[in-house]
Task: inverse folding
């Protein structure tokens, strides 16, 4: 008799029998939590597409209305002509928080329009800055593989302990192309620790029972902030009944089954599992708390913004420098080629 449960498979029943089914075992995969990738679009995320389109429309419409008001006021007051480019520049400058220009006309209609535009700019600027801060400090993680189909398209390699040879043959004989692909990606490794460690270091997954993986992750792959370095996929590869392997026609099977049944019906099995997992998480957290330096470094790292968060700002600065340099070259050559002024 072996006190290690195994899934009930037809070819196994030919060799040995099983005790009372006290566990519905599942074969699940664990992978490393996806990290945050540098995304230059981080400056775009605080507002939705509709809001950006509405802001652009307002930025195009407001200078036109203001220019019409200026032209009418100039005809009545005979004021100096303000170029259209200057009006567009002033309106765009007010939107990004520049000083209020003093060259705008002093008519009441223009003042009302400028005041309305300033009020709109304050609201949009505050909303954008607030959402930008939130999106930078709490960024969205990339989607992770949760199903078998996503697993075979994401993982470059899938590992499993020594019993994995039987599962590899089983998957390769399947009529499903997904499970055939799964069997082609499978490799047998000595222990679970090696498989999960490789899953963290490389783009691969590890197959094992869900409960055992949860326990091993809680013990060895939990960080100081109580976040796990690995996650277990939502969808299981296989689910089935499991029990203790025993010889066929064993005389002690009725007594063993009666004892297992009593434990299961009393809810002790599930309670023991929860208590074991909670104790493992508690011990791991206490061990990490004792490593004060590591915990402090982790906290400081979490509070700091990296180039991953601010890549968009640096790319925007580089784009502005290139545009300013190109404009300077054009202006420089235009001055050289223009005829001198006669005074």
Result:
């Amino acid at each position: 008799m072996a006190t290690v449960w195994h899934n009930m498979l037809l070819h196994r029943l030919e060799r040995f029998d099983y005790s009372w089914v006290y566990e519905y075992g599942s074969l699940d995969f664990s992978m490393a939590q996806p990290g945050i990738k540098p995304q230059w679009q981080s400056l775009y995320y605080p507002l939705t597409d509709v809001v950006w389109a509405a802001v652009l429309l307002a930025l195009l419409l407001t200078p036109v209305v203001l220019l019409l008001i200026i032209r009418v006021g100039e005809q009545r007051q005979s004021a100096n002509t303000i170029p259209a480019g200057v009006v567009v520049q002033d309106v765009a400058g007010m939107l990004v928080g520049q000083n209020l220009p003093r060259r705008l006309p002093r008519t009441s209609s223009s003042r009302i329009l400028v005041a309305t535009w300033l009020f709109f700019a304050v609201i949009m600027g505050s909303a954008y800055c607030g959402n930008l801060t939130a999106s930078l400090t709490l960024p969205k993680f990339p989607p992770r593989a949760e199903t078998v189909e996503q697993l075979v398209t994401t993982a470059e390699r899938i590992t499993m302990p020594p019993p994995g040879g039987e599962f590899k043959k089983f998957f390769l004989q399947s009529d499903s192309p997904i499970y055939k692909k799964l069997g082609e990606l499978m490799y047998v490794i000595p222990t679970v620790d090696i498989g999960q460690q490789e899953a963290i270091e490389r783009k691969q997954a590890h197959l094992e029972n869900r409960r055992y993986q949860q326990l091993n992750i809680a013990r060895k792959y939990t960080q100081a902030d109580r976040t796990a370095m690995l996650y277990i996929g939502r969808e299981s590869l296989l689910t089935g009944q499991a029990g203790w392997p025993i010889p066929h026609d064993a005389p002690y099977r009725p007594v063993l089954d009666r004892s297992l049944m009593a434990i299961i019906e009393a809810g002790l099995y599930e309670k023991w599992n929860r208590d074991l997992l909670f104790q493992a998480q508690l011990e791991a957290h206490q061990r990490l708390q004792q490593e004060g330096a590591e915990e402090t470094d982790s906290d400081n790292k979490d509070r700091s913004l990296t180039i991953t968060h601010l890549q968009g700002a640096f790319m925007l600065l580089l784009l502005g420098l290139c545009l300013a340099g190109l404009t300077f070259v054009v202006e420089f050559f235009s001055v050289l080629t223009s005829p001198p002024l006669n005074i």
About this structure: The first strand starts at residue 6 and ends at 7.
